[in-house]
Each structure stands twice: as structure tokens, then as C-alpha cells.
Design brief:
By secondary structure, the protein is an all-beta fold. It has no helices and 35 strands. This is CAF-1 p60 homolog.
């Protein structure tokens, strides 16, 4: 594995807020505070034993404000982009004799304020978006019209996710709640069931037993609106078996100490976390799954997840990236010290060769994996049959792991010497202690026990 911060002019030195890989060509799309979408070809650094690089290909210029979210459709024929001011655009790929080009297909107008996150349905027919106007909208991508408005949140919706089995959608807000919506189709119209999502769970607080077992105490599961990021990008696993939620917040019993965490929700019970991943030194802002499943290595038969294959996912905090698989307890790789400002998004290439992340400091990090480094691809991955599969999360024995030491991190070379200013109006007013202060890259040294909550 080789990686680091690529020292090129991504978006006129302004914050890079989102990125995504095309599912077929492998082109990388980035969106930034310069109002532009740029397409890049990723060049392997394997032959020169260097980090991968990016070559500029094209720009998609239409937005009149900062681009916060980019996602290619599953077929790769469309690209959705959400921006400040409620702008939401669907681009369509056109093939001509001169080559391929992206053109505006639909302009989706209804959000009153900034669009912060979006996600396609697995068939590419629908789109969900989350906004600063506190709402989620289900869009009919072909008609370019509003299909349904989900307005249960009381603060910014900073992350949305669409279940690959199309039964659920999920949203995460700075009101400290996650809402799980289930599809209850309405009467068929012309032989077709109409999507109709209703809120099944509103996840607010967890409950923990005190050491003396005398009473239990409820606590908030998620950070409040003071979290210094406008993104809480959650994700379903490719098979739909579990959901990962960032911005987790956990208070250690009989102590004032809190731990940043990522919550794992089993599809069998989406009302509460089944597991929390070991805490990081900074809040988690995004999670993203590798699209490929890998064969089991047999290294940990008593692992947390009961799957016939290994899934790999990345967890980004404000300043670090942790890569996990479903067969091991500790992360399989940790990248730290890469950026001087908050990480904003994560993307995997379709072949799992590249992993990219964007940052408010105006730069992106690219990581390249060697052939079979992550394992042998598995042919078993398919959307799970909910009626037949057992819960994917097992309660582990009491396991203790220690967060990474400095030697385990990958440090970027020739990093920018000073942090770029955060985009005006997009971040909470900094306190005197945070002005001009780079984010600390020092990992936590405490020992953390992963928690499993009994079913």
C-alpha cells in the first residue's frame, strides 16, 4: 500500500468537499468551494514505487456555489451533484464521435438551503438528498421531480444512505438523531408499486448499566451541532447486512471521559447499535465501503461479523483514516497526519485498487493497493436474503485493543505549511484555542474495549 497527499491544484487551492469514482471508467470526480466539478484520471505509482498521481481531464461547470456532494449512479451513466443554496443537478454521460461528455440532464429544485449529502437507489431510478433545510427528499431521477419529502429532523441533515435492497433509507442529522425509514409501498399504479417511506426508528439515545448495577443511564449516541464538520456521511454495506453511522459519541461509565466512535447497526435490529468500533482521537465524519467482497482469511473465526466473505470499509475522522475489515478486530491500516484541515469525504475505486479522501485544506489523498493486497475477491457477494440469513453482528468476547502508535501512520510529504481558511459560513465560529491551530495528529493512547450490546 502506498499513499499520500497529492500536491496539485485540485480546486484553485479552495476546499475539496466531496469526491467519487466512476463505477466503470475509474475516473475520479471532485467537487469544491470553487463551484466546480473536476474529473481526474488516476495514474498508478506502482512502477516508480511512488504514490499515485492525478491528471486533470475535464471540468463540469454549472453550479453557482460550493459543491458539497457528488455521487455517480450505479450504471455510471449519470452523476448527481448537490451544492449550496439547494442546487441539485443530474448530469448525463453522452457518447459522440468526438468522445464522451457530461451534460446537464435535470435540475432538481425544491431544497431551500444547502444540499450536504446524496445517494442513489441501487437501480438508479431514485435519489435521496439531505439538506440544511432539515429535510430529506426522495427524487424521481428520470422525471426530475420530488417523489417524497421526509421532514422529521429538527436540524441540518448531514448524511443520507439508501439500502441496496431498497427497503430502507437512513438519515443522520446534527439534531443528534438518526432516522430509519422503511418502504411501505402504496397501491400499485399501472402495475408498479409506488415507493412510500415512513419513519420506523428514530435513534436518539443509548442506555448503559452503571458499575454498581443499581441503575442504568441514558446517553446521547451522536455529537451535537458543535461538531466541526458539516458532513456525517453514513453507509450501508454492499450486501445490505449492516449500517455504519459516523459522529458516534460514547461516555465511559463512572467517568467524565467520552469516546468518539462509529456505530454498527445490524439489519436484523435497526433500533439500536449492535456494536461500536474502537474510539478515535477525533470525531468520525464519514464512512465508506469498498464495493468488492473478499474471501475469508480464517484469521479470526471469533470475529464480530458473521459473513461468508470479508467486507472492507474506511472510517474517516477529522484528521485520520482507519481501514477495517469484517474479519479482524483492530483496523488493518491507519493513515494519519495527511491533512491540516478536516477530511470531508471518502471514495473507493470500483476495482478496490484506489482509495481517495478529500479535505478542507484544498488537497486530496490517494492510496494505491497492490494486487491481492486486500485479499482474493469473492464471488459470494450478493444482496442478503433477510429471511434466511442470521444476524451479521455477533457479540464478541471482551476484547481490548490499543489505538495506533505514531509509527503505524502514513505521513504525507511536503504538506502545505498552513491550513486553508474554512469556507465562510460553513463552520461554527472558532474558539480562540482553535484559531490557526492545526488538528492534532496524535492518536489516543487510552485502551478501549469495543462494546457489543445484547440483542
Amino acid at each position: 500500500m502506498k499513499g499520500g497527499t497529492v500536491q496539485i491544484n485540485w480546486h484553485d487551492t479552495k476546499p475539496v468537499l466531496t469526491l467519487d469514482f466512476h463505477p466503470i471508467s475509474g475516473l475520479l470526480a471532485t467537487g469544491g468551494a470553487d463551484f466546480d466539478i473536476k474529473l481526474w484520471f488516476i495514474n498508478s505509482g506502482e512502477a516508480q514505487k511512488k504514490i499515485p498521481t492525478a491528471s486533470y481531464q475535464n471540468s463540469l461547470s454549472y453550479h453557482g456555489s460550493a459543491v458539497n456532494a457528488l455521487r455517480f449512479s450505479p450504471s455510471g451513466e449519470q452523476l448527481a451533484s448537490g451544492a449550496d443554496g439547494g442546487e441539485l443537478i443530474i448530469w448525463k454521460l453522452h457518447t459522440t464521435e468526438a468522445g464522451q461528455s457530461w451534460k446537464v440532464f435535470k435540475s432538481l429544485s425544491f431544497h431551500r438551503k444547502d444540499v450536504l449529502d446524496l445517494q442513489w437507489s441501487s437501480d438508479g431510478a431514485f435519489l435521496i438528498s439531505g439538506s440544511v433545510d432539515n429535510s430529506c427528499i426522495i427524487w424521481d431521477a428520470n422525471k426530475g421531480s420530488v417523489h417524497q419529502i421526509l421532514d422529521g429532523h429538527f436540524h441540518y441533515v448531514q448524511g443520507v444512505a439508501w439500502d441496496p435492497l431498497s427497503k430502507y433509507v437512513a438519515s443522520l442529522s446534527s439534531d443528534r438523531t438518526c432516522r430509519i425509514y422503511v418502504n411501505k409501498p402504496q397501491a400499485k399504479t399501472k402495475g408498479v408499486e409506488k415507493l412510500n417511506f415512513i419513519c420506523q426508528h428514530t435513534i436518539v439515545k443509548g442506555e448503559q448499566q452503571q458499575i454498581d448495577d443499581a441503575k442504568s443511564v441514558k446517553y446521547h449516541l451522536f455529537h451535537d451541532e458543535t461538531l466541526p464538520s458539516f458532513f456525517r456521511r453514513l453507509a450501508w454495506s454492499p450486501d445490505g447486512s449492516f449500517l455504519l453511522l459516523p459522529a458516534g459519541f460514547y461516555k465511559i461509565p463512572a467517568s467524565s471521559e467520552t469516546v468518539n466512535t462509529t456505530y454498527v447497526f445490524s439489519r436484523k435490529d435497526l433500533s439500536r447499535p449492535s456494536l461500536q468500533l474502537p474510539g478515535a482521537s477525533k470525531p468520525v465524519v464519514a464512512v465508506r465501503f469498498c464495493p468488492i467482497a473478499f474471501n475469508l482469511r480464517g484469521s479470526n473465526p471469533a470475529g464480530f461479523f458473521k459473513l461468508p466473505y470479508r467486507l472492507i470499509f474506511a472510517v474517516a475522522t477529522l484528521n485520520s483514516l482507519y481501514i477495517y475489515d469484517t474479519e479482524s478486530v483492530p483496523p488493518i491500516a491507519i493513515l494519519a497526519g495527511l491533512h491540516y484541515a478536516a477530511i470531508t469525504d471518502i471514495a473507493w475505486s470500483f476495482d478496490a485498487r484506489y482509495l481517495a479522501l478529500s479535505s478542507q485544506d484544498g488537497y486530496c489523498t490517494l492510496v494505491e493497493f497492490e494486487k491481492d493486497e486486500l485479499g482474493q475477491p469473492s464471488s459470494l457477494l450478493e444482496p442478503m436474503n433477510v429471511d434466511k440469513k442470521s444476524p451479521v453482528v455477533q457479540k464478541p468476547d471482551d476484547m481490548v485493543i490499543e489505538t495506533a502508535k505514531e509509527d503505524d501512520s502514513i505521513t504525507a510529504e511536503n504538506r502545505k505549511t498552513e491550513c486553508m481558511e474554512r469556507r465562510e459560513g460553513k463552520q461554527p465560529t472558532p474558539t480562540p484555542s482553535t484559531v490557526n491551530a492545526p488538528i492534532s495528529n496524535k492518536p489516543a493512547k487510552r485502551r478501549i474495549t469495543p462494546m457489543a450490546i445484547d440483542p
